[in-house]
Design goal:
This protein is mostly beta strands. Helix content is 9%, strand content 55%.
Length: 385
């Protein structure tokens, strides 16, 4: 009950701190509505924020809320989210989305970033982008399951990371098939590291730049919060020396998601995911098990190796009004090779979460995940997958 009350209290605080920033082009007459106090205005916003407005080209809102996560402690997060139509003459096309976010905690952690997706030419062209910078007091246990499971290996250090990813895809052959290029740049620096043995004696500062190609099949009814459909993708990225990589390697990442309705308001969502690296993979680019999207509740990077695979099955249930909840279970593993995945130790994962529809078909989520000797709270926008 303490866990439920904490999460419910979080949702109440989330709504209480909600505020909308919208440009109004129409002149406003002075009437009784202009004299409404701040709490009444917040209530009006909460009551109508998810109402779709087909005539609005850009629907933009700001939300601010406290949060607690195991690896960053108590903090505050601000998200400025916008939903927009690239073509106002065709509102049946999927909308684009852009999110600017900032997080800061009492432990000195902070992160700022921008993430978004655009749809052009009736959804025949898609653009996805994600750029962020973060600084945090991190924990590290080494590379591979045997080192990762040993609590005595834990080392604290300061981690700085800057990352940029962009993917452009074009519709080919069938309405749901897309192919296109991918670019990725990542810079990670580990500060206050005195012994690099757990880091395989690699450099503390790592730059990784990659180019590649992605192929995806997407029949989801909504990319932010799917009720039905299938999503499958495979991305192949090359990080050669001539781009500036001291440690050249390649990455293959595959994802398969399926969504279907089981009863009124109930959606079953499943995901299979694998990330495999080959070559001289640096410590900063190892495949990691656990983050706000997969194996929720594990410290990001607690379990890492060249290869990782995980599977999740989730029930999403609408409760009332704009509130819903989810429960999930999953399993994952890390290994030095693809073949090793089938022989490695399986790590379990389960959790429960609450949902609040911030905008139409766009949820704010609070998830509490459990794992092997670990648990953690996640606050984010959009579904995990």
């Amino acid at each position: 009950m303490r866990l439920v009350s904490r999460v419910v209290s979080f949702i109440i605080l989330l709504i209480a701190f909600s505020a909308e920033a919208t440009n109004h082009n129409d002149s406003l007459s002075i009437d009784s509505s202009s004299r409404r106090n701040i709490f009444q205005k917040i209530y009006d916003y909460v009551a109508s924020a998810n109402d779709p407005d087909p005539g609005k080209k850009f629907d933009f809102s700001i939300i601010c809320a406290p949060y607690y996560m195991q690896d960053t402690s108590l903090g505050i997060a601000v998200v400025a989210a916008g939903i927009f139509q690239n073509d106002t003459t065709n509102f049946s096309a999927p909308p684009g989305q852009i999110s600017l976010y900032a997080e800061a905690s009492i432990t000195g952690y902070y992160k700022v970033g921008i993430e978004g997706s655009n749809h052009f030419n009736g959804d025949r062209i898609k653009l996805y982008y994600d750029a962020s910078f973060e600084s945090m007091s991190a924990h590290y246990w080494g590379i591979g399951y045997d080192q990762n499971r040993n609590d005595a290996n834990e080392v604290k250090y300061r981690r700085l990371n800057a990352s940029v990813t962009a993917a452009l895809s074009f519709n080919v052959i069938t309405p749901h098939l897309y192919v296109g290029p991918i670019i990725n740049f990542d810079y990670t620096e580990g500060k206050n590291i005195t012994d690099t043995k757990l880091w395989n004696y690699q450099r503390r500062k790592i730059f990784s730049g990659g180019i590649g190609i992605g192929v995806s099949y997407d029949s989801r009814d909504n990319i932010f919060n799917a009720y039905k459909g299938l999503y499958a993708s495979i991305n192949q990225t090359f990080l050669p020396k001539f781009i500036g990589n001291r440690y050249p390697f390649t990455v293959t990442e595959a994802t398969l998601c399926n969504y279907f309705q089981v009863w009124k308001g109930g959606i079953i969502a499943s995901q299979l995911h694998a990330r495999m690296t080959y070559g001289d993979t640096p410590w900063s680019m190892m495949s990691k098990l656990g983050d706000s999207y997969t194996m929720r509740g594990y410290w990001e990077g607690r379990y890492n190796d060249k290869c990782v695979a995980d599977a999740t099955l989730e029930l999403r249930q609408h409760l009332f009004s704009r509130f819903g909840m989810v429960v999930w279970g999953g399993v994952g593993c890390v290994a030095p090779t693809v073949k090793g995945i089938f022989k490695s130790h399986a790590l379990w994962n389960a959790g429960v979460g609450l949902r609040w529809e911030f905008k139409h078909r766009v949820n704010l989520r609070v998830d509490y995940g459990f794992g092997e000797h670990q648990n953690g709270l996640v606050f984010s926008i959009n579904e995990a997958f």
